[in-house]
Amino acid sequence: MKAAILRLDAVQMSFGSVIVDQHGFTDSFPGVAMLTGLIGNALGYDHSDFAKLTDLQERLDFAARWDVDPEVMVDYHTVDLGSPKMRNPGWTTSGEPEHRAGGPAARYGIHQRYRHYLVDGLMTVAVGLTTEGDPDLQTVVHALREPVRPLFLGRKTCLPSRPLLDPRTPVMEGEDLLSILARVPIWTRSGQEAKGRCYTRACWTPRSFEDTAPETRLVYDLRDWQNQLPAGSRKRCEGMIEVGL
Question: According to DSSP H, which parts of the chain are helical?
Answer without folding.
Answer: 32-43, 50-59, 84-87, 104-108, 137-145, 177-183
